[in-house]
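ok so heres the complex, two chains, lmk if somethin looks off
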Amino acid sequence: MRANPHFQKLPAGYLFPEIGRRVRAYAAAHPEAKVIRLGIGDVTEPLAPAIIGAMHAAVDEMAARETFKGYGPEQGYDFLVEAIREHDYTRRGIEVAADEIFVSDGSKCDSGNLQELFAADAVIAVTDPVYPVYVDSNVMAGRTGAPGADGRFPGLVYLPATAANGFCPPPPETTDARGVDVVYLCSPNNPTGAVMTREQLTAWVAWAKQHDALIVFDAAYEAYIQDDALPRSIFEIPGAREVAVEMRSFSKRAGFTGVRCGFLVVPKDLRATGAGGERVSLNAMWSRRHTTKFNGASYVVQRGAAAVYTPDGLAQTGAQIAFYMENARILREGLARAGFTVYGGQHAPYIWLETPKGTTSWQFFDGLLDKAHLVGTPGSGFGPQGEGYFRLSAFNSRANVDEAVARIAKVFA
Amino acid sequence: MRANPHFQKLPAGYLFPEIGRRVRAYAAAHPEAKVIRLGIGDVTEPLAPAIIGAMHAAVDEMAARETFKGYGPEQGYDFLVEAIREHDYTRRGIEVAADEIFVSDGSKCDSGNLQELFAADAVIAVTDPVYPVYVDSNVMAGRTGAPGADGRFPGLVYLPATAANGFCPPPPETTDARGVDVVYLCSPNNPTGAVMTREQLTAWVAWAKQHDALIVFDAAYEAYIQDDALPRSIFEIPGAREVAVEMRSFSKRAGFTGVRCGFLVVPKDLRATGAGGERVSLNAMWSRRHTTKFNGASYVVQRGAAAVYTPDGLAQTGAQIAFYMENARILREGLARAGFTVYGGQHAPYIWLETPKGTTSWQFFDGLLDKAHLVGTPGSGFGPQGEGYFRLSAFNSRANVDEAVARIAKVFA
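and the predicted structre for the whole thing:
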């Protein structure tokens, strides 16, 4: 069989498995070390009682013939779609129809699958640093060349996210745009923790309209926004329905990293250009993709996700987010006291810190693991511009966060 | 944005949504009709008590910080992978390693995603009739032209599955092979209910070796095989590890159509040809695809799937399968008594019947719905060679199956 040749362009390992490998090797060689993991952005608090109750009830439904659920609608059950629509959109004055919401088993899958709607030669723009799935899924689909010595893939348009632009790069100038078809934007941002303002997002929507480009807006961390003036949805921006899709996830909002549920909003106003220049509906295309290659998220999981929107669910998951954000504050302030320049952590569960001068991201990773027994994520794992930075996650127990800050204070005193 | 042009080659609706639409329209116009659904192959028995217990226990684990599970291994938890390996393979004398098993959220997803490993111009062979996902996912990826008047997609190699060959077409002759890269084989077959013998499968493995082709073996219905002499896994055939991947599902085996779990076996012996003629490992490629675009099946679901392999789980799910197979016997015999020529239903939950002379599959569908208030699946929905056939599923209550047979006897008397 002739294989897809583009997989060979990807470097050896996905970032997190590589981190796992190094941590396991270190732990095996130093069994006495109490390693604290602030690397992979994985939640640590248990599921909220409202969610647990709903999942038990759903399991019981599956035990009786009268209430058993087989194949559900691929797009998600009405009870969940309507809860999403009402709470996340209608109540905020945002127009989203039920058949524009596609429930999935998580945003990683949606991120990876969405590129199937793009032409094979579509030009993709990403921020740098960036969540690796946006890049890797387009590399696998053949939209890039093999990476250069700088780690960049020819054919991708990179938008440097730097301290100078607050890690929120503006739209590329017309002359630089190279006919960009798609841009991936993540706000609040993974990995930098930066959040886009209404003005910044408005500029992107205007740019996308002008250039007939698609914005893939990843709002997986919207629940961490602390300031109501900041946009939680790109559809708060007038005109965004014509140029954007939006990804949301229950992973970080409600502790679903091991439960698996997210959703993608694809407005029916959104059009792309077909082979003959005709305008095609991305909603219809995604619906076709979703019904052909996916069979719906687990019923028990969807019942759990719907419980997030109950009064108890909202209160309980809100308290978890407040807990993680207090962790973020403790980390931020502890790092700053230890002399680090830190970003993020105010509307996102990630702290983005500058590594000491002359220390690469991976060197800092190895040093922090060895000296402080702390695991973080090397910034260079998110792209060349992430070199010289390091991500710490606020997902952990308070005791571990306090201990991490104490170790940092000691090691970097 | 320039869109993937190949989606436009697909006809309007995926088969089952179209059936749903017609049934809803009929039910709305005839609210008094008691419609019995034997169309979509969806289970009706509730989950077995062993599975229910395991899922409740898993939900409880998610409620406590000490036992909470966040991101799991993308490939599946060891407890499930080892249960699969031991029960489905090792105990049957089949060599499969743990890192050759990839747990997923179901075979529909695996069927749709697997083609990402193939070259863009790989030549795909399918039986006709066939499970639509094999075809549609390759159409979307641009491996075909637009369909002709006969519904066939230029570029695909169709292998007619007819009464004459027992609905198990042999490998194409060398001169007809057109350099086939991949063939999809499903046994026990959806939709025909046919099952391949050891000799037939051995011939396919030999052909694949000779032509350096990949066999995608879909064994989603293996639990319905009643004769131990028939192969349940392609890896029972010597040499298959070098030419085949195998899909398995808990959907029909344990009632997981709404729970969502399956797995794909990709042997490490399997090689394909890269762009430069080098040999590449499909196991490594699938591992990369799985870790990059998927985040593991839900923990609660994986615990439920593992319970299928406990003594209670095996006994309880075995009893369900026996129940459905008794339904199949009742349907088969009732249809035969009513004068129909019937196939399948002996090692599969599907009956494949010939529609009366001069009646198309969709005409028979509409007539059966109107006269007997029974829903089946038109054979032509599975491919041009399915015209003149009709699929009935054995998934229903005994009362409904008895009633269906009584209505058929009356209508076709």
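quick notes: Chain B has a mean pLDDT of 96. thats all i got rn
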